[in-house]
Write a structure and sequence with these properties.
The protein is an alpha/beta fold. Helices cover 45% and strands 8% of the residues.
Length: 298
C-alpha cells in the first residue's frame, strides 16, 4: 500500500508503462479519457480498457499507436475474483497481448482471451442466464424458488438476489445506452423495476423488498403486481429442473460463443464462468456439466 499514490490529473501518468481505464460504461466518456491518455502517455505505454460490454475498437477510436491498446476486463470485486478476460483488438500487437497475460500472472489472476462481442464471454452468458430466469417468472415460477434452486445447485446467490446486490440499474443503463445508439434491445422485466425506482438493496427494493438497514430479501407482492406475473406454481418445476434449464441456457450461449470464435475452446468458457461469475467449480463449468449430463466424454 505504501507504493500506492493518488492524483487528480493525468500528468503523473506521463511515464507509466501501463494505464488501465475503469470509468463507467459510457462510450463518450471513455473516448475522452483515451484522447487525454494518448496525448499525455508515452507512445510505447500500454493502454487498456476495463470495459465489460463496449467494443474496445470503439473505445480506442482515434488513439495514437492503437497497437499498444487492448481490453483487460477485471471481474468485480477485482481483489477477490481471479478471472481476467483479455480482449485484443485487430490492431493489438503480439507483444502487448503477451504482456497482458504476463500481467495476469503477476497479479495471480487466471487469464482467458476473448473475442469482441457484446459482453465478451462472461457477461454475455450472464445476460442470457438472467433473461432465461425472467422467462421462468412469466411461466409461473416464483422469484424465490429460482434463487433457491440455483443456491441448491451451488451458486452463492440466485440470479435475482445477485442483481439486487450488484444493482439492477447497472445492466439497465447498459441496455439504455445500446438503445440510444440505435440497437434493438428488448425490454427486460428488470427495466420496469428500475423505472419504478426499484434499483437494488441500496434503494430498499429490487426484485425483493428490504427493511431499512437490512439485507435480508423479502418476497414482494408489489413486484408481482408491477410485472403482472402469474401466481407462482410450486409444482410447475422442481429445483433440479430449474437449475438444469438455466445451466442449459448458459451452455447454449457458450456453444454460440464457440461457433463465433469468441472463445477458443469450451474449457475457456468454463474457466470464465467459474472464476468470473461464481459457477460452482465442482460442476466443472456449464460446458463440462452439460456434456457430462448428456453422458458424453467432453
Amino acid at each position: 500500500m505504501a507504493s500506492v499514490t493518488g492524483a487528480a490529473d493525468y500528468a503523473p501518468l506521463s511515464d507509466a508503462d501501463l494505464v488501465i481505464e475503469a470509468v463507467f460504461e459510457d462510450l463518450a466518456v471513455k473516448r475522452e479519457v483515451f484522447a487525454t491518455l494518448g496525448a499525455v502517455c508515452r507512445r510505447d505505454a500500454m493502454l487498456a480498457t476495463n470495459t465489460s460490454y463496449l467494443n474496445p475498437c470503439d473505445v480506442a477510436e482515434g488513439l495514437p499507436a492503437p497497437e499498444r491498446f487492448l481490453g483487460l476486463h477485471f471481474f468485480s470485486p477485482a481483489n477477490v475474483m481471479k478471472l481476467l478476460e483479455i480482449v485484443p483488438t485487430p490492431q493489438t500487437a503480439p507483444d502487448v497481448l503477451a504482456s497482458g497475460f504476463a500481467l495476469a500472472q503477476m497479479l495471480r489472476k487466471i487469464p482467458v482471451q476473448a473475442g469482441i462481442c457484446d459482453g465478451f464471454i462472461g457477461n454475455r452468458i450472464l445476460k442470457r442466464y438472467r433473461a432465461a430466469a425472467e422467462v421462468l417468472l412469466l411461466e409461473g415460477v416464483g422469484i424465490a424458488a429460482i434463487d433457491k434452486a440455483m443456491r441448491d445447485f451451488g451458486f452463492a446467490m440466485g440470479p435475482f438476489e445477485a442483481q439486487d446486490l450488484g444493482g439492477l440499474d447497472i445492466a439497465f443503463l447498459q441496455r439504455e445506452n445500446a438503445r440510444a445508439s440505435g440497437k434493438a434491445v428488448p425490454e427486460a422485466l428488470a427495466d420496469r423495476l428500475v423505472r419504478a425506482g426499484r434499483k437494488s438493496q441500496k434503494s430498499g427494493a429490487g426484485w425483493y423488498d428490504y427493511a431499512p438497514g437490512e439485507r435480508t430479501p423479502q418476497t414482494s407482492a408489489a413486484v408481482t403486481t408491477l410485472l403482472n406475473l402469474p401466481e407462482p406454481d410450486g409444482v410447475l418445476f422442481n429445483g433440479a429442473d430449474i437449475a438444469a434449464r438455466l445451466v442449459g441456457e448458459m451452455a447454449a450461449e457458450g456453444r454460440m460463443i464457440l461457433d463465433e470464435g469468441i472463445a477458443a475452446q469450451a474449457a475457456d468458457i468454463d474457466l470464465v464462468l467459474i472464476h468470473g461469475n461464481g459457477f460452482p467449480r465442482w460442476h466443472g463449468g456449464p460446458m463440462f456439466h452439460v456434456t457430462q449430463d448428456a453422458g458424453h466424454t467432453p
